[in-house]
Design goal:
Blueprint (H helix, E strand, L loop, with lengths): L1 E6 L2 E6 L13 E6 L2 E6 L5 E8 L2 E6 L12 E3 L5 E5 L6 E5 L6 E6 L5 E5 L7 E5 L5 E9 L3 E4 L6 E9 L3 E4 L6 E5 L2 E2 L4 E3 L3 E4 L8 E4 L5 E4 L18 E4 L4 E5 L5 E5 L7 E7 L11 E6 L9 E4 L11 E7 L12 E3 L1 E8 L4 E8 L3 E7 L15 E7 L6 E4 L11 E7 L11 E4 L1 E9 L2 E8 L3 E7 L18 E5 L6 E4 L5 E2 L4 E7 L12 E3 L1 E8 L4 E8 L3 E6 L18 E6 L6 E4 L11 E7 L3 E2 L7 E3 L1 E9 L2 E8 L3 E7 L5 E2 L8 E7 L5 E4 L2 E2 L2 E7 L4 E9 L4 E2 L4 E3 L5 E2 L5 E5 L4 E11 L4 E10 L1
Parallel strand pairs: 4-8, 5-9, 8-10, 9-11, 10-12, 11-13, 12-14, 13-15, 14-16, 15-17, 15-18, 16-19, 17-20, 21-27, 43-49, 60-68
Antiparallel strand pairs: 1-2, 3-4, 5-6, 6-7, 22-25, 23-26, 24-25, 26-27, 28-29, 29-32, 30-33, 31-32, 33-34, 35-36, 36-39, 37-40, 38-39, 40-41, 42-44, 44-47, 45-48, 46-47, 48-49, 50-51, 51-55, 52-57, 53-56, 54-55, 56-58, 59-61, 61-66, 62-65, 62-67, 63-64, 67-68
Length: 780
């Protein structure tokens, strides 16, 4: 047979005789010798195999991992290998390790697709070496050997890595990375001839050249040839002049690599900036690739388009009626006129040509708001006919004075010791301070804020009128406009409490019933009612508000003796919210007749009656007593009957709980013409039965619990054995018999007869309500 490898002038040839048909042992890898050639062939699995020369014509082949060679994992020895090794792997991720090659043989290794790992160490053979890896990300390592024959390494498709260390190459050598991102590492190796290196994106060597950045000024014609290698360092041997690789292309032009190691840069006819750059690398004769160097290019103004810049000396925003503008080009231009300028919200005037690069004009704003200046592209050209770029400028016109509004959350009048205020401007301002606030009858404190909102407090000097205002021209907006004057806030400060005075037209001793009284406040008040009057030995009737400060009422004495009337503090307030002081106390000795009602009922307290019967007995016959005179809390009065001094009625409870019955003073009038005094009666309604629980087991007793909103008065229980009831001494009764338990809320009954019984327990509360429960109980 004949196998041949050729690339870039490297030619390798291996001759072998034809092979006769044979059956090879089964396994992942098949190995055999034919015609002096060792053939090692792997299948499509991921195979691992190690080959090593034992002598010039004897080779050991060893399976690694799960691989089998000729069906075994044991080392195999092949002799008669006088021409070479041909190793072919399939499509798996193969690992081939070769060490200590000897003799006048050639080594040919070809792996298929897959991520393969090929290692060849301590090579001493004299024939050619060809290693080809297929598609996949492969790793090829050559180390510590001597190659007398030619060497071809082709990494194939994929992102491959080739590492060479401590190798002496004595003939022509070719490294080809193939398609993909490939890396070549050369370390402490010797090449008798310069290696051919192709298609490796990165080459690393211990002797790598150094590329140095360059800075070049491009002439006005836009063309320059750069000797980039002049300041670079060719470490490891001379530069390969044709090995310059452009890493990054320029943006404003093109570059061409010349065969003499120079680079020619040609700028575009029109560039958009004043600089450009590109990057390159270069290799030495060992194949070592330099670092990436950058060539910085300064582009001439002549190649750039004219670029206008619009400026103004006015602030932004501005309150100028006429805003000055200047247009400055980066080079001399022609053809620029006032008609090339577009103004939004303004009128252009005064266009002046200062020189071929500079132009001025003014703009009068039409109204407050954005003023926009636009210069379109192509408004002017340079001497080379390049059209100018576009430019725009925005500025805000503001010629409106800011306004300010004063507000307060305080009522008028107010009793606040520090009255809160807010000053709200129509826009953000500066320069506003506490001293800019004008106050009558007060001082400013706690001033804070910024922008358009400020807060402060005014402490009134005395009761009376307080005024607050802000003068004009004390603050400015961003455009420099001064504020207008604010509104004036006027309110009354009143921090004095109202004082009530109690008086009566009755003498120190009187038989009048009722007794007339008047309460006079020193100013108008609100929230003063009959319930706010504090009476000893009497009740208020006929309460009347005469005006905001004067109130009249009568007092019906409960008994003869002193009747006292006073108004306590803090029950009424003036318009500013000040609570009143306490009044004086007026005492009158009452000597007249008293008509006294007495409320009673036949029901216990608590009661479960519904309705509950009541009787009212007056101390003398009365007239004018009606059902509406009976005031009930938690119930409704009904069925009032009677006359003279004796009346009966009923109350339907609203729910469990206290029921309050009130007969107010003055509800009826006695035969003496005297109004009755007040009377009150309280009783508890309880119509809810107690809750009873029985414990299901007991030792020498039966027990449980009972609960109720009121008192449990008694717990009873019956015990049934399935035939008769317990009567206290034995199961002697055919009818139910109840015995009394000890305790109430936690009750028990001593019972020493073991067994299982039906227990019926009932509890009675103080209102007579009965609650019960039945439970099967086991006694032990």
């Amino acid at each position: 047979m004949s196998r041949e490898g050729r690339q870039s002038g490297l030619r390798v040839r291996l001759q072998a005789e034809a092979l006769e048909d044979r059956t090879t042992p089964a396994g992942n890898v098949t190995a055999f010798v034919s015609g002096g050639i060792l053939f090692v062939q792997g299948d499509s699995a991921s195979n691992q195999v190690w080959l090593s020369s034992l002598s010039e014509d004897t080779v050991a082949v060893t399976a690694l991992g799960d691989t089998r060679v000729n069906g075994t994992w044991l080392p195999l020895t092949f002799s008669g290998v006088t021409l070479g090794w041909v190793i072919t792997m399939g499509q798996g991720n193969d690992q081939v390790y070769i060490s200590r090659t000897q003799g006048n043989i050639g080594v040919f290794l070809n792996t298929g697709a897959g991520n393969d790992h090929i290692t060849l160490n301590r090579a001493q053979h004299t024939g050619p070496t060809v290693i080809r890896s297929g598609a996949g990300d492969d790793l090829i390592s050559l180390g510590m050997g001597r190659y007398v024959g030619s060497v071809l390494i082709n990494a194939g498709r994929g992102n491959d890595r080739v590492f060479v260390s401590g190798v002496d190459f004595r003939n022509e050598t070719l490294f080809d990375g193939g398609p993909g991102f490939d890396q070549l590492g050369l370390d402490q190796s010797r090449f008798r001839e310069s290696p051919a290196i192709h298609n490796f994106e990165q080459v690393f060597t211990a002797l790598m050249p150094t590329a140095v950045d360059d800075s070049v000024s491009v002439p006005d014609n836009g063309r320059v040839t750069i000797s980039v290698l002049a300041n670079d360092l060719p470490i490891g041997g001379p530069f390969q002049l044709d090995s310059i690789r452009i890493v990054t292309q320029p943006q404003q032009g093109t570059v061409t690599v010349n065969s003499n190691g120079t680079i020619t840069y040609v700028a575009n006819n029109t560039v958009t900036s004043d600089s450009d750059s590109f990057q390159y690398t270069v290799r030495n004769q060992l194949g070592g690739e330099s670092n990436v160097a950058t060539v910085h290019l300064r582009l001439p103004v002549a190649l750039r388009p004219p670029a206008p810049t619009i400026t103004t000396t006015a602030n932004n925003p501005t309150n100028l009626a006429s805003i000055p503008f200047r247009v400055t080009f980066n080079k001399n231009v022609i053809g620029f006129t006032a008609g090339d300028i577009t103004v939004t919200n303004g009128t252009l005037s005064g266009f002046t040509t200062v020189n071929a690069q500079t132009y001025t004009f003014n703009v009068a704003p039409t109204a407050d708001g954005p003023v926009t200046i636009n210069i379109p592209a192509g408004a002017a050209t340079d001497s080379g006919g390049r059209p100018s770029t576009a430019a725009s400028f925005n500025i805000t016109s503001d010629r409106t004075a800011p306004t300010v509004n004063l507000t307060t959350t305080a009522s008028d009048p107010t009793n606040l010791s520090a009255i809160p205020f807010t000053a709200t401007f129509s826009e953000n301002v500066t320069g506003f301070t506490a001293s800019d606030i004008s106050v009558t009858n007060g001082t400013v404190q706690n001033f804070s804020g910024s922008g358009s909102s400020y807060t402060f407090e005014v402490v009134p000097t005395a009761d009376g009128t307080v005024t607050v205002s802000i003068a004009a021209n004390v603050a400015q907006d961003a455009a420099g406009n001064n504020n207008t004057a604010s509104n004036t806030v006027t309110l009354t400060s009143d921090r004095t409490k109202p004082t009530p005075t109690v008086s009566t037209t009755a003498g120190a001793s009187t038989s009048d019933n009722p007794i007339p009284f008047t309460v006079t406040f020193d100013e108008n008040v609100t929230d003063f009612t009959a319930g706010d009057v504090l009476v000893t030995n009497g009740a208020v009737i006929n309460f009347t508000q005469v005006n905001g400060s004067t109130y009249t009422f009568d007092v019906v004495p409960n008994t003869t003796g002193n009747v006292s009337v006073t108004v306590p503090a803090d029950i009424a307030e003036d318009a500013a919210g000040n609570k009143n002081n306490a009044s004086n106390t007026v005492t009158v000795n009452f000597t007249g007749n008293v008509v006294t009602p007495t409320i009673s009922t036949t029901e216990p307290d608590p009661t479960n009656a519904n309705p509950i019967p009541f009787t009212v007995t007056f101390s003398e016959s009365v007239t004018g007593f009606t059902l509406s005179d009976i005031q009930v809390i938690n119930g409704t009065a009904q069925n009032l009957t009677g006359s003279g001094a004796n009346y009966t009625f009923e109350v339907v409870p609203g729910g469990d709980g206290p029921i309050v019955i009130d007969i107010p003073a003055g509800a009826a009038t006695g035969t003496s013409g005297t109004p009755n005094s007040a009377a009150t009666f309280i009783i508890t309604s309880d119509r809810t039965a107690p809750t009873v629980n029985i414990n299901s087991t007991g030792i020498n007793q039966i027990s449980g619990t009972a609960s109720d909103a009121n008192t449990i008065t008694q717990v009873e229980l019956s015990i049934y054995d399935g035939t008769n009831y317990w009567d206290g001494t034995g199961f002697n009764s055919s009818s139910e018999v109840f015995v009394t338990a000890s305790g109430t809320n936690n009750w028990s009954y001593t019972f020493t007869t073991p067994g299982t019984y039906t227990v019926h327990a009932r509890a009675t509360d103080a209102a007579g309500n009965v609650g019960d429960a039945t439970e099967t109980v086991t006694v032990s």
